Amino acid sequence: MTKFEWSLPNKTNYLLLKICGIWPEGDQYQFNLYFLFFLTSAVFFLYPHNLCQIIVLFYTSDITVAGAIIFVILSDLIAVVKMHLVVGNIKMLKKLTAAIDNEELQPQNAAQERAVMDGIDFWRKSFYFFLSAGISTLFFWGTFPILDGGYKEYKRPFIVWYPYDFKKSPYYELTYMHQMISIIFIANLNMSVDSFASALLTFIAAQCEILSDKLKNLHQETDARRAFVGCIKHHLQIIRYADDTSKFLDLVVFLQFVPSSVSFGLTLFQLSTVVPFTSQFYSFLTYGIAVTLEIFMYCWFGNEVELKSHNIPYAAYECQWFEFSKSLKYELMFFTLRTQKPIKFSAKGLFYTSLEPFVRILRTGWSYFALLSTINTS
To answer: ∠ CA(210), CA(115), CA(341), 5° rounding?
Structure first.
């Protein structure tokens, strides 16, 4: 078989990471133009935008204004943490991306390749849908003050404090431009890191499928013992890969899950307070879709890893093990016992990336929306 290019479907994602300045050519950062680009983006756009948004919260008592700030700043602050996690773990992440092209992790037949492609195709569709929702949100955020005529009153896409009078030309235009560059950088950070994380989960799920297929057809091998030893080594590689991935995802998932229900509830609240079918309404709508997809990707692909790894001992049982030698039967039995514990990814040990927390987040978000609506009308 021709070599399967694992990294090919992820090329667009790598490009987005490079645009953020957090994906250098090697496995560490060098003091060069690319590093200066990353430093400039963070110092002039990422940090000031977040800091000036936080300052506004100390000066407002309007629940609608506070909600408009909080529902955006939650994602903005998480982007800062994601950036530092990628930068701090760049060596390990580069190692993970290099490992996917190892010969031992390649599909061995057409059936394995088809099973792998099914998972990758779904990830690719989810990625582009997520990307489309993010781009649509940025478009509506950037244009609603223009389309709604708010620019005449010097309205900006976001409520941000500035230490100068921005209601003068060219300060207004420069401020507007700074906000848009900042939010594009922040959105790209969130989308690229989230998509990269879900791609790692997709790869682990695919490896579990390949291993299951090998185990099912173990009896067809001319040297079953040698093939079984290969399966053990493959399983150990999957476990090591999952452990390294978990080190990166642990804090990311925790920070993503905790405020997601708040963001979802605030988005619904903002939708209920703006004029329907305006550009501002659509900006909140597309943002709500993007936030939902963001958490869905972690939950869905984390759930896929759990399900596919859960099937490994059943796959071992499906081979014609009764034809094996007594010693090989015992070895297969111990392997089956070892693999009965599925691979799970947790958020600081509090909850796992599966569909159940996803539903719980949506329910909690709806409760926040109902509470805010009650407070706003009373």
So the answer is: 45
| Cα distance between residue 120 and residue 206, in whole Å | 8
pLDDT band at 1 (very low <50, low <70, confident <90, very high): low
Burial of 343 by CB count in 10 Å (0-12 exposed, 13-18 middle, 19+ buried)? Answer: buried
Nearest to 341 by CA among 328, 331, 356, 352: 352
pLDDT for res 325:
80
Lowest-pLDDT range, 25-34, 80-89, 218-227, 291-300?
218-227
Q: Is the pLDDT of residue 9 over 80?
A: no
**pTM to 2 decimal places:** 0.90
CA distance 260 to 75: 9
Cα 191 to chain centroid, rounded: 7
Amino acid sitting at position 165: D
Distance (Å, rounded) from C-alpha 262 to C-alpha 268?
10
What is the per-residue DSSP string for 227-280? HHHHHHHHHHHHHHHHHHHHHHHHHHHHHHHHHHHHHHHHHHHHHHHSPTTSHH
pLDDT tens-digit series, residues 74-97: 888 899 999 999 999 999 999 988
Q: What is the pLDDT of residue 266?
A: 81
C-alpha distance from residue 113 to each of 14, 91, 120, 268 (Å): 23, 29, 10, 42
Distance (Å, rounded) from C-alpha 282 to C-alpha 143? 11
Least confident of 56-70, 212-226, 306-320: 56-70
d(CA 170, CA 152): 14
Residue 275: φ, ψ to 5°: -70, 125
| Residue 254 near residue 352, CB atoms below 8 Å | no
